[in-house]
Amino acid sequence: MVEKESSLQKIERLTSKQENIRNVATSAHIHHGKTAFTDNLLAAAGLMAAKNAGDLDEGMTTWQHKDEQERLMTVDAANVSMAHEFLGKEYLINLIDTPGHVDFGGNVTRAMRAIDGTFVLICAVEGIMPQTETVLKQALRERVKPVLFINKVDRLIKELKLTPEQMQERFVKLIDSFNYLIMQIAEDEYKEKWKVNVQDGSVAFGSARENWALSLPYMQKKRVSFKDVYAIYEMEEVERKKWVWENALLNDVVLDMAVKHLPSPLDAQKYRIPKIWKGEPDSKFGQDLVNCNEKGEVAFVVTKIVIDPKSGKEISAGRLYSGTIVNGMEVYANLAKKKARVQQVLVYNGIKPEQLERVPAGNVLAISGLNVDVGETITLVEQTPFEEIKHIFQPVITKSIEVTRSQDLPKLIEILRKVGKEDPSIKIEINEETGENLMSGMGELHLEIIEGRIKSEKGLEVKTGPPIVVYRETVAKDSPETEIRTPNGHNILFFSIEPLEDEVFDAIERNELSEGKIKKKAEEVWKKLSELGLSNEEARQYKEIYKRNVFEDRTRGLVLLGEVIESILDGWRLVVDGGPLAKEPLMKTKLILHDAKLHVDHMHRGPAQVYPAVRLGMFECMKKAGASMFEPVQTHMIEVPVDFMGTVTQLVGSKRGVLLDVQQEGIDAVIKAKIPVAEMIGWSNDLRSATEGRGVSSLMDQNFQRMPVELQADVIRKIRQRKGLAENQ
Ligand SMILES: Nc1nc2c(ncn2[C@@H]2O[C@H](COP(=O)(O)OP(=O)(O)OP(=O)(O)O)[C@@H](O)[C@H]2O)c(=O)[nH]1
Ligand SMILES: [Mg+2]
């Protein structure tokens, strides 16, 4: 008797058919239905009990953490895989369900590195929301192609009671606005190409929770009309499910859409690689990447790390762009600069990671045994690593964290290191001298979840301080050239500091200029800098970009400089990490080294001489350049019933906020406002109580801006006091 192929065997077979693989994600504004969608796809693939699919009361299967079940929201991105048949061919769908809450947006950014296409979901009632725009930006930055799913259509019928004509009108509007966003955000080449459209079926609509979907081609094939959709809401549940099963099954419609409109890794890597990997395209390795060559050298990018709480074993999930990963293979980690051995190769069978012997290029998979960080590029021999995976927003809220029993301190330090590894959007600062440990995250909820997980999942009692805001230090004008001697008096360095040009700063923010050391022959960087308005001469003086600050070397023919430049750069990075005003990171500055007089004997110009000189020099220069503080500010879109418009306007005003726009849409008002993060601690509660729970606020943008002068001294004093900084520190 022939044994039936198990679902794992099927997935294994499909991992090697690259043209039949689709690496995709769900992405959307918070609560627009991504997890209900994912759960129902899994159920249809027979990979979970159908009765629970998308059912909140039962708890979604795709939620792997208890806090997700409790808060009814996704926190971590979840990888799942399933098979799908389309026009007689079998396909492997590797899907990542991403979170919608902005605090966990880093998980979205990282997921985008692993995939080539995404289902963007929009709630038909709420429409396009700020986070819809953000996730689209995240996708397009990685050249991930979108298709559109208009979700919660049942609400248009049952709640808003729209007629079929009104429903169609609404769809047209939503699609137009979605395409308008693509036009605005996409790179020129994709503005037209990646627009979605009803006719070709790159748009579908339906109800993720109720497990149905339709697209125009599918409706034509099944001879179904909009009126039929209305009829199903007149039916009894059993009858409705039967109709849906026969005529409009969610997984059929949307997975067909993915197969038809989203690229296979073979197609996608051709245009994605030049965007996310900046090595030599014509090299053998470059060609392996572009061609997704399973026989080529291994190239695996780690996009997510999960540490087993019991065994401590680390699993690194990510995307294999080239080669074949085999059990037991020795590999090389390019950022950590170390060798590692593959202990297990895992693929997702539904949501469950399961072991295989080998997995070829073009798949989303997981590996144990690497013990590296997220963003790492794994190869066989040293290669140019992939571009850094940089999130759109930076962490701006910090809390101190301490143990309740002092003997637990070593355990806390170990756990914090793990936390930072599993969630790279959390920045951990461990100060073993003062015993003060800090964690910074994207928002209050982010830190709350992390604290909860340390207590419940890692089993450690901790307490945290009140939330504090992260600031930046910068300069207001150019400093004069300033000369500074090393402590032994044998060397002199000549520095000046300036505000970094807006154009360059924005290009770094947009990832068009990569951070890190600039290579000797960095033609691409020079070209970009000259496009941004810099002279050829200055472009060639760029030495390094670090945390949105630039170091320029304007010295000429200094023979000895090569021997001290590394120490100078180290010293510079140390000050960038903590500036003179309050030891907060610098931003948007350009340090220029004009000249140096160096002692011939290297004994007299070691790091112990160079570091303090760089530090002193930078402090001096910054003082002369009007050192000042930047604070984080957020732009929010606040929706409230019109009756509360006045109250919200007042609330914004009381928080040093600025109104950017106020619009009335029917009985609702939409207010856009810019508010300093320092004033937004407890914002969701404040808004809730001011609006009797009717106000909803979503983050549109976040950046840093100069602080009002009159507040600066007080803020600096408080930070210095908190950090216990002495006068000269
Ligand atoms: N009426 C209706 N409700 C839906 C539909 N899809 C999802 N929901 C509900 O919307 C809420 C959010 O659904 P989720 O699937 O958790 O949404 P999500 O996008 O994964 O949410 P986050 O991951 O937290 O951003 C739940 O209450 C769902 O039951 C739908 O098609 N119709
Ligand atoms: Mg979700």
| Shape call | globular
CATH architecture classification name of the largest domain: 3-Layer(aba) Sandwich
The averaged pLDDT comes out at 93
User: Which ligands, by name, code or SMILES, are bound?
Assistant: guanosine-5'-triphosphate, magnesium ion
Structural class: alpha+beta
Share of β-strand residues: 25-35%
Number of domains: 5
Radius of gyration: 27 Å
Q: What's the number of extended β-strand segments?
A: 33
Going by CATH, the homologous superfamily of the largest domain would be P-loop containing nucleotide triphosphate hydrolases
What is the terminal separation in angstroms? 79 Å
What is the top-level CATH class of the largest domain?
A: Alpha Beta
Low-confidence stretches: none
The strand line-up of the biggest sheet is 12-11-17-8-9-16-13-14
- Put simply, the count of helices is 24
For this structure, the CATH topology of the largest domain is Rossmann fold
Can you describe this structure?
With 729 residues, this protein is an alpha+beta fold. The chain has 24 helices and 33 strands. Helix 20 crosses helix 21. The longest helix is centred in the first third of the chain and has 22 residues, at 164-185. The mean pLDDT is 93. It binds guanosine-5'-triphosphate (GTP) and magnesium ion.
